[in-house]
Amino acid sequence: MGIGPFTTYAPPGVYAQTVVEPAVGLLLGGLRVPVLIGVGKETLSQTNFEMIRGSSSVADTPIFGEDAQGRWVSGGTPQNPILGNQDGNKSRFKVRNYPIVDGNGRGSATYDASKVSVSVNGSPVVVAAVDGPNGLVSLLVPPAEDDKVTINYFFHRKDTRITDDVSAQITDGPAVLVAPKVETYAVTLGSNDKLALTLDDTVPVTITLTPGATRTATDIANDVNAANIPGLTSSVHVDNEGLSHVQLVALGNILVGSSNSNSSDAPEGNKVAYSTDGGASFTKIWRLKNVGTCTWTSGYKLAFDGGDRMSAPDTVTLTSGTVPPGGTVDASVDLKAPGDTGTYQGNYRLKEPGGALFGIGPSASNYFWVKIKAVSAASLKPDLVVKSINLDPVEPYESQSVSVSVKIENRGGETAKDFTVKWWPGEGYASPACTWDVDDLDPDDDQTLNCTYGGYPSFYASINTKAEVDTGDDVDESDEGNNVRLKEVKVLDF
Which CATH number does the domain 167-377 belong to among 2.60.40.10, 2.40.50.140, 3.40.30.10, 3.10.100.10? Predict the structure, then answer.
């Protein structure tokens, strides 16, 4: 029977074969190039492009260095596990592409733990079990909360699946934060005129907004820019309905605290940005660039891919129009901060119309993310403590010179400035032997202060040496009751 305009034409069969190299060869990084047999022509001009086409359904695709962050199993079923961040107790995680196969080129799902390799902070660890069909990997020992866990494995890609290297699609530009509330804003002096931010997790700032009953987004942006804060700018974001929102742009991380302008206790009309205190709403925006060869359409989705959901939907339409190769799109998702304090991270990838997920990195499998810290107003204040007191020698003789080392730490959320630290040889001594003036100490930072003490006037079987930070109460702290530290020492007799 004739097909199309050609009465004698019959299409040839199509066959694709993927050559599977030994693991050592794969580590050297060669991409497998499929062989297409048939009539037709396809021209590609793109680097790092991996393609499998044809009728083969047993191609085994290698994944190297996939990050397990946000993929740790906390409950659910093997078919539908609940995923989240590591807390130091979880030992099982789910890979992003599954089923996990044995890598022999036949597409066979595996339960063999030797078919995958896992590293913690760059060092290989023991894999206890593998559930290939469900993509689950169990470790013998749970990693610590801040360990970096990566995995190498093969998965079953199936027929006609195409994956680009989209690492360049996620720019390294600044973070953009858009207020969910549209203009106008009612700003009242002393009530909701303070906007508290922390930049790059270390630089706390408070911006004073100009009072007014009908402040526009432009007015609020001008107030932010007038503060002249390095690394932070503000502008107006106009949405697809023509409504104006305040937009913050930061070079690095931006933490929105709970001052009166952005507190969850403020009336809805007064919110100029999301609050991380009390479960308020916010919008996260990523600017993505299409560096592939296919045009992104409304069929492409921004997809939640594990971690902390923060009320995110499963998918959001990436664009209502089209994004041609070389074009950019602002992908956004509306989120809600959890009501409890802590650090939260939600992970995302893109989903093509056929349902396949793709992300960033050499294997186009890694996610991009949104990360926030939910804090209370009190935690944005400094919190100074004496972390340790050390003497050298540890047990000095009377009249022997002693080297004193006092380590202080700021456990709060704001920089402590211009305070004094003192050390007394004994808590009953009237005068300190060492005094230091400290200019500033950033959040989560510590500083070691050193001095030399001329020697104890007599021996002591036991005496408590004492150190105190912020002796003049110059710093407004979240906890004023933890500034003193005692340490028992022994002074020997000659």
Answer: 2.60.40.10
Residue 48 pLDDT grade (very low, low, confident, very high; cuts 50, 70, 90): very low
Cα–Cα distances (Å) from 204 to 48, 222, 368, 412, 441, in that order, read 42, 19, 26, 11, 12
Residue 170 in contact with residue 360, Cβ under 8 Å?
A: yes
- Residue 83 in contact with residue 94, Cβ under 8 Å? yes
Neighbours of 207 (CB within 10 A): 21
What is the pLDDT at residue 204?
75
Q: Which CATH architecture has domain 381-491?
A: Sandwich (2.60)
**381-491 and 167-377 share a CATH fold:** yes
416 pairs with which residues across the strands? 441
174 compared with 442, residue with greater pLDDT: 442
pLDDT digits (tens, 9 = 90+) for 441-489: 988 889 999 999 999 999 999 999 999 999 999 999 888 899 999 999 9
Phi first, then psi: give them for residue 294, nearest 5 degrees.
-105, 145
Q: Return mean pLDDT, the chain.
A: 77
CA distance 114 to 129: 9
Name the residue with tokens 């469900």. 134
CB neighbour list of residue 316: distance below 8 Å, 6 or more residues apart:
301, 302, 331, 332, 333
Query: What does the domain layout of the chain look like in residue ranges?
Result: 23-163, 167-377, 381-491
User: What is the C-alpha separation between 203 and 215, in angstroms, rounded?
Assistant: 27
Best CA proximity match to 397, nearest among 448, 336, 454, 445: 454
- Alpha-carbon gap, residue 259 to 182, rounded angstroms: 20
Query: Which pTM value belongs to this model?
Result: 0.35
